[in-house]
Amino acid sequence: MDQRIAVLVHVLGVVVWVGGMFFAYVALRPAAVQTLEPAQRLPLWAATFERFFPWVWLSVIALFVSGLYLIAVYGGFGAVGLYIHTMLILGLIMMLIFFRVYFAPYRRLKNGVAAQEWKSAAAALAQIRVLIGINLSIGIAVIFIAILGKLWI
Ligand code: HEM
């Protein structure tokens, strides 16, 4: 595989995952709070995540595989800069946070919405919001580290 193909795959993964979190957090969430009652808002979020999360799984795989491939091309873990090690560690933390969202509160949100138990669905959504806020912040930090890190570390 050409190195540029790996960078392309890597950047597409970043765009889909971080861009999707940015849209959800900064635009859709406040708009949904402003315009919808819980009985409409919570099913909207369940349906939104049902469509977005398969793309996040794909992005996670794309980022991980292309990132490790690039490290191999650059001569392995010993040869790459500290900023790439930092990206790998922060990327793994982001992935663990996503798995946590997917297998715990997202499940509860879906079940709560299916049973029309708005209280438990709202509690699950509040947890998802916190975790996605954390992942969005780490994601933006990783972009800074990936692009500017080469200058310093
Ligand atoms: C989890 C495993 C990851 C590994 C092993 C990894 C590894 C790498 C490597 C080796 C490069 C090439 C650096 C260079 O050419 O100087 C790179 C570039 C980059 N990575 Fe990652 N990365 C990972 C996750 C992430 C994540 C989660 C993000 C963002 C949220 C990210 C954002 C970027 C960006 C923006 C670039 C710059 C692409 C370019 O050259 O234009 N990476 N990554």
List the helices and strands and how they pair.
Blueprint: H1 3-35, H2 38-73, H3 82-103, H4 105-114, H5 118-152
Helix pairs in contact: 1-2, 1-5, 2-3, 2-4, 2-5, 3-5, 4-5
Bound molecules: protoporphyrin IX containing FE.
Protein model, in words:
By secondary structure, the protein is an all-alpha fold. The protein has one domain. It is 89% helix and 0% strand. It has 5 helices and no strands. It has helices at 3-35, 38-73, 82-103, 105-114, 118-152. Helix 1 runs antiparallel to helix 5 and helix 2 runs antiparallel to helix 4 (105-114). The longest helix has 36 residues, at 38-73. The mean pLDDT is 97. Bound molecules: protoporphyrin IX containing FE. Protoporphyrin IX containing FE is lined by residues 7, 10-11, 14, 18, 63-64, 67-68, 70-71, 84, 87-88, 91-92, 94, 139, 142-143, 146-147, 150.
